[in-house]
Amino acid sequence: MAPTAFESLDLTGKVAVVTGAAQGIGNACARLLAARGAKLVVTDRADSVREQETADVATLVGDVAEEDTARDTMALAVERFGGLDILVNNAGQTLNKPVTETSLADFDRIMRVNAQGNFVQAREAFRVMRDTGGGAIVSVASVSALVAFETQTAYAASKGALVQLARVLAIEGGAHGIRSNAVIPGVIDTDIMDGVVENGREMLASFGPAHPLGRIGEPGEVAEAVAFLAAPASGFVTGALLAVDGGWTAQ
């Protein structure tokens, strides 16, 4: 008998890692995966991620782009909960500068977090999943991976790299039962622009009319797409890019 819609979305018995989980999209993903039954390892560079620690949620503070952090994260999942089934590769940073004002240090910093961080986390998760029967890797990209915006030289390049990493993982992972997909959020109501521009949330909200749906998105709406790609419901989906962008990329 085929599973019901609820059963195909249920994550009971699954073990998930969520990076960048202290706030925003990562926090929404962690809360939704937990609500659907998963046990979690949540990581962030912010100490506040420790506030999520429970019997079913382990926390780790560290630099997502460091190899040791990635290894420690996956080891914690195995040690604490007995395995690893899901990686939500969410941690990221943004930068808004014209190309002529973007320094090499700026470019390296954004690429390090968004591309290198995604790579080392996925590589270490892949190694565990390969040896334990498979799993699902979901990367959080951006419409900036597909369409161009002024002042996003570094950010767009990093998210484009992330998308291609997700596709390569899908090809290499197929034989091992590892699925890899990416979500493509549009403008989402988070604090990602805080410290980058003044009145970051107001700036993000101003993009609402540019989306065919007439508003910006909520972190929980991205989390729903991530949870679908992590669940048995998407068992034949790999190498896909799922737009959660209010129609932005359809324009």
How does this model look, in words?
By secondary structure, this protein is of the alpha/beta class. It has a single domain (5-185, 220-243), classed as NAD(P)-binding Rossmann-like Domain (Rossmann fold), CATH 3.40.50. It is 40% helix and 15% strand. The protein contains seven helices and seven strands. The protein has helices at 5-9, 24-35, 67-81, 104-132, 153-173, 200-205, 219-230; strands spanning 15-19, 39-44, 57-61, 86-89, 135-140, 178-185, 241-244. Strands 3-2-1-4-5-6-7 form a seven-stranded parallel β-sheet, sandwiched between helices. Helix 2 links the parallel strand 1 and strand 2 (39-44). The chain starts with a helix and ends in a 7-residue tail after the last strand.
